[in-house]
Write a structure and sequence with these properties.
Layout (H helix, E strand, L loop, with lengths): L2 E5 L3 H18 L4 H4 L6 E8 L2 E10 L3 E9 L8 H12 L6 E7 L3 H5 L3 E3 L4 E3 L2 E8 L3
Parallel strand pairs: 4-5
Antiparallel strand pairs: 1-2, 2-3, 3-4, 5-8, 6-8, 7-8
Length: about 140
């Protein structure tokens, strides 16, 4: 089982990523659709596939604070197979030459995944779309 991660380059791939996010965030986690589809045009999107089947997605967005990693979503059938880790590593690799802050808002249940890559919690926990989150910043090793 080989996980492939690619930067999204056309509308068909973007639609596949959006379908994954709709399944994970809107349907499974009951997130409001109006906040799910923010900042799409200014983000760089990535698609994870196994055997050419789309199974995960994430994006990078430059903000006034630095680079924010966002919208990590893996379909239920592909979880615990390394897809999330492959996405995190790919996005960090994309930003390895950047000297700006790299951060994310982690769902509390996923914060241990990001900690494995050097992300450190900063600040208080907060609620977003009815889910508890924590801001995490990346510390280069």
């Amino acid at each position: 089982m080989k996980i492939e991660i690619q930067k999204i380059s056309d509308d068909a791939e973007l639609q596949q990523a959006w379908a994954i996010r709709r399944e994970v965030f809107v349907i499974e986690q009951n997130c409001p659709e109006d906040i799910e589809w923010e900042f799409e045009e200014e983000s760089i999107h990535y698609l994870a596939t196994i055997a050419n089947e789309p199974v995960g997605t994430a994006r990078i967005r430059e903000t006034e604070k630095g680079f924010k990693l966002e919208r990590f979503a893996v379909l239920d059938k592909a979880r615990n197979r390394g897809v999330g880790s492959a996405l995190v590593q790919t996005l960090l690799d994309e930003l390895k030459e950047e000297n700006s802050l790299i951060y994310l808002h982690a769902q509390l249940t996923a914060s241990s995944l990001y900690a494995k890559f050097g992300f450190v919690p900063t600040g208080e926990h907060f609620w977003e779309a009815g889910i508890e989150h924590v801001k995490m910043e990346w510390r280069k090793n």
